[in-house]
Amino acid sequence: MAHFTKATSVKDWLNQRLAIEKVEKVMASEYWIPKNINFLWAMGMVLVVTFVLLLVSGIFLLMYYVPTTAEAFYSVNYTIMREVGYGWLWRHVHGVAASVVFLVIYIHMFTAIYYGSYKKGREMIWISGMLLFIAFSTEAFSGYMLPWGQMSYWAGMVITNLFAGGSLHADGLVEWIRGDYVPAQAFLGRFFMLHVLLVPIAIMGLIGLHFAALRIPHVNNQDGEEIDFDVESKKYLNGDKAGSKVMRFANDFMSKDMMVVGIFLIFFFYLVFYNYGFAMDPVNFDPADGLKTPAHIYPEWYFLWSYEILRPFNIDLGLALFGFAQVIFVFLPFLDRSPNSVPANRRGAAFKVWFWLMLSNMIVLTAMGKLPPEGVFSQIGLVAAILFIAQWIALPIITSMEKKV
Amino acid sequence: MKNKEPIILAVVVFFTLVTYYLVEPYAHHVMHKHVESESFAYADLPAITKTGDAARGQDLVMGAGACVGCHAIEAAGMPAAMEPQMAAASYGVNPPDLSNAGVIYDARFLTDLIKNPAHALKVEHKFDADKGQMHPMVGFYGAGGDIDQEVADMVAYLQSIAVKPEAVTPALAYENACGRCHAMSYENWTQIGTKPKFKHEKDSLAFDIKVLEYQDSIKTYMGKLPPDLSMYIRSRNEQFISTLVENPQNHLAGTAMPRTGVTADTMDKVIEHMKDAGDTKRHKREEVGKTVMIFIVIFALFALLWKKQVWRDLH
Ligand code: HEM
User: Fold this and answer.
1) Is A363's CB within 8 Å of B231's CB?
2) What residue segments make up the domains of chain B, in order of their start?
């Protein structure tokens, strides 16, 4: 057993038992961050803050939400929006944060792709990040079911139908997932459980994993420079703060994180109070009605690109490609065969084009996923979907031909 | 080292805005037909040519015009002859009390309505007299004199008994113009009126049964139950609702919902009432929004100063 002495202070008492000083060093003051990084590296902290906003607002909503098909719509739109003090505020914060979190996730992901931050020991950061993406997608989808509006019902119907596997006709599987022939009480109860318990727990665990994965490789930097953290941190600790290439996470980089968070929150609360419509689809303010199919059924904007990969093809091929699109990002660290982990614009023309094309094409897919699949829109959608697949097939080829820089 | 942050920010903002533009304004523009407002002018109806006389109008409304045979006019001491669900059983829907018709409805619309209801209401596709499909409101065929003068007199009378436009509350506007067809449960409104607080459950259930009976009649009459409008201000937007009311056929061709012929002022009040039901906390939102924005800007400023201070030694 360890040796304990009479404590000289509260801090000492805690130190003997929890090693708080050591923990503080490992996690904050001697967690070294390169200096040559820009505000995009604050997106992780922005995500943490947004997640906290989701969690806190969600807890308030949970106090009044009723997970039954008869009461859900009323409990949200009447009880929470009208009766509960500031219920409307929590709901708008929750709804807007759920949408904005995906915007920030996409920025965060494309930052990682652009700077090659998924390579050279950072594979686990990327993989845990993609697991977070999947967990957040599940969280968002299950949450969307809860108000039991028209879009909840019909998006739930369409997405669970995918599990029939096209011409496999695995209708039994679909019924098993729904617990009924159509989305009904069993369905709502299950998604409620996922949304408020299982998936949030998974997310918290995955955030822990994501952070742990960051600790050893450290974060990348905007020049793709290999930094000797031992040498540079010594320099810093010996007083040459300006000459060292690194800085402490806290307070050095955290002060910048907070600055970015501050600016982000101005944008966020502007949306919450003055421009929340994009995050709360009007159609979902009509109560669920199994007899009335809405004119246009589409998922929330952040799922549109993958939805559009499903749509232009026949059901079997569409499903296969949709499945491909869901998982392919996870394998990015292994599909990119290039030895370079430097920003995309310095890796030669091929990857540079690949990157900007991927980004633009996903925006095109997103737009086409929402528009009705008619005329020129379905043709653009088809081309964009094929291009998306082709880009992933081409990736190992063009990256293995890349010259070392 | 050159500071790349402004250009990076520009790139992020650019792609965000393009995405936003495509999935929001642009997609909505493509998916939803845009209907221009006709500013509630009812220009398709004949212009008014006569000036009415309220005193003569009173005789017509109470007598030859036969309005009170079907409609109550509480303001003139004419209560409803039957309970709403009974009236709906006869007419399909309860003919509204006309006490405030003069202020709720546009004069040009009323003038046409009295002579030819199906035409003014734009439901001729459902009610074609030649095929024996009679509108439940029988048109006025004249009382022996100049029919246009007689109609103008009745309109003048209805205007004379109505409250002043300023006295029309949002709830009154809604209940008169939409309330006989559309419930609004979040405001406790049913098609047969505001549901009172009952002491005994039995009375409450008895009321509910009347509502259900009423709804059965209206379903038969209109082919479907007109929806509860509690949350419609959020599921449809203001522009949609107001152009729909102006002419339902513009949005839903062939629909059973009639053109209601309300004035622009009534429409504003109906919208206001729908906001009271479905966007109840909008004033509070404005107020809290301002405070939060001020707070968060101050937070951001402090964060900026802190960063500046911490980073002074780092360069
Ligand atoms: C809500 C979920 C997420 C949270 C809370 C989160 C949080 C963070 C934080 C705090 C950092 C360090 C600071 C930074 O570089 O921004 C980070 C880095 C990173 N994250 Fe995430 N992240 C999330 C989702 C994702 C996703 C979906 C991906 C993509 C697959 C991802 C990939 C990465 C990578 C590759 C890095 C390292 C960046 C570098 O080394 O330069 N993260 N994350």
Assistant:
1) no
2) 1-31, 32-280, 281-315
In Å, what is the CA distance from A237 to each residue of A33, A230, A234? Answer: 14, 11, 5
Question: Token digits for A87?
Answer: 């219920």
* A266 contacts B186? CB cut-off 8 A: no
Q: Can you tell me the ipTM of this complex?
A: 0.94
Q: Which residues of B touch A238 (CB under 8 A)?
A: none
Give the domain A28-217+226-294 fold.
Answer: Cytochrome Bc1 Complex; Chain C (1.20.810)
Cβ A224 under 6 angstroms from ligand 1? no
Cβ of A98 less than 6 Å from ligand 1: no
pTM of the predicted model, to two decimals?
Answer: 0.93
Comparing alpha-carbon positions, the chain A residue that sits nearest to B283 is: A273
Does A186 sit in the ligand 1 pocket, CB within 6 Å? Answer: no
Residue A63, SS3? Answer: coil
Q: What part of A 28-47 touches B (C-beta under 8 Å)?
A: 35-36, 38-40
Q: Note whether A367 contacts B: Cβ–Cβ < 8 A.
A: yes
| CA neighbor of A33 nearest in space, from A258, A250, A343, A249 | A249
Residue B44, CA distances (Å) to A44, A256, B260 in order: 60, 64, 14
What is the pLDDT tens value at each position of chain B, 315 positions in all?
568 999 999 999 999 999 999 999 999 999 988 899 999 999 999 999 999 999 999 999 999 888 999 999 999 999 998 999 999 999 999 999 999 999 999 999 999 999 999 999 999 999 988 888 899 999 999 888 899 999 999 999 999 999 999 999 999 999 999 999 999 999 999 999 999 999 999 999 999 999 999 999 999 999 999 999 999 999 999 999 999 999 999 999 999 999 999 999 999 999 999 999 999 999 999 999 999 999 999 999 999 999 999 999 898
Apex CA A259: angle with CA A253 and CA A261, to 5°?
A: 100
Q: Decide whether any atom of ligand 1 lies within 6 Å of the A133 Cβ.
A: yes
